[in-house]
Amino acid sequence: MAKFGVLLRGINVGGSNKVSMADLRTLLDGLGFTNVKTLLQSGNAVFDAPKGTPAQLATQIEQALEDRYGRVIGCVVVTRADLDRIVAANPLAGIADKPSYQLVTFLNGEPDAKLFTADDTTAYAPEVVLAGDREIHSWHPNGQANTKLTPGWWKKRLPGLVATARNWNTVLKLRDLLD
Predict the structure, then answer these.
(1) pLDDT tens digit sequence for 8-56
(2) Considering 84, 90, 131, 135, which has the largest number of Cβ atoms within 10 A of its Cβ?
(3) Which residues pair with 8 in a beta bridge?
(4) 48 lies in which domain range?
């Protein structure tokens, strides 16, 4: 059995796209996953799976969510190794002094470097945004409510990818849950 984390995109945010964590646990159990645990109310879960790659598991979970809720809910599945790599590489460690203002946007594939670096991100200062392997690191010192990096900015640079962000505190908690 391998351990995985699943991150659902855009649920329970601002009162829309409701998915209860009890329903999510039941859904994951029904797919044959074991040791299912959820974290917070924003679509974070960990589980053990007997087989499958993160991409295969994400597709399986997305289909089950669509069958259950009648709408597409994007997922990104990660491993403990993914989270260990992200935490160890933390390119914002020297500047991000509020973990809740530091985000990791998890992706279901690699970002197109040409699209991502199409403009000078220093124009968004004091915000910082850096591409990783299958994630984007961003620092929002004035908070996310005041960001210049709008959903349109992200959509233009990450076409066709599922992208879902978690703050640094949540990243660390998810990693710990995968122990």
Answers:
(1) 998 876 667 889 999 999 999 999 999 999 998 889 999 999 999 999 9
(2) 135
(3) 75
(4) 2-78
- Amino acid 100: pLDDT: 95
What pLDDT, in 10s, does the model give residues 48-94? 999 999 999 999 999 999 999 999 999 999 999 999 999 999 999 99
Whether 11 contacts 17, CB under 8 Å:
yes
Last residue of a domain, one of 39, 55, 78: 78
Q: Is the dihedral of CA 163, 169, 174, 175 positive or negative?
A: positive
In 3D, which of 170, 104, 172 has the Cα closest to residue 140? 104
In CATH, what number is assigned to the domain containing residue 95? 3.30.70
pLDDT digits (tens, 9 = 90+) for 99-115: 999 999 999 999 888 87
- 75: tokens are 């997922």
CA 104 to CA 171: how far, in whole Å? 8
Whole-number CA gyration radius for the chain: 16
Q: What is the CATH number of the domain that holds 39?
A: 3.30.70.1280
Q: Are 43 and 52 in contact (CB under 8 A)?
A: no
Statement to judge: residues 62 and 121 lie in one domain: no
Whether residues 26 and 101 share a domain: the answer is no
Identity of residue 33: F
Beta strand residue intervals within 9-151, DSSP E: 34-39, 44-49, 75-78, 102-107, 128-131, 135-139
